[in-house]
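re: ur question from earlier - yeah i can do the single chain one, its not a big deal. heres the input i used so u can compare w yours
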Amino acid sequence: METIIIKPKDRDELNFFLELAKRLGVSAKTYEEMQDEQLLKAMEINRKTQKTNKKKVLDTLNNILNEEQQDYNQ
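and the output i got, formated as tokens:
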């Protein structure tokens, strides 16, 4: 199925398009709603992964921060 993206100029126009889609029986979501759904799905997947202890995460972050930074302006 193809998707259409409409960028309304204000909140009233957004509400107009959402109401129009509803009356036409067409599925419509805002971009923010789609992002929220994707975030929730990712969180649900990650919720089932093995936990890592706090010390290991902090040690890894410290190692990354303490590595010699590359100079890309050469």
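The radius of gyration is 22 Å. not sure if urs matches, ping me
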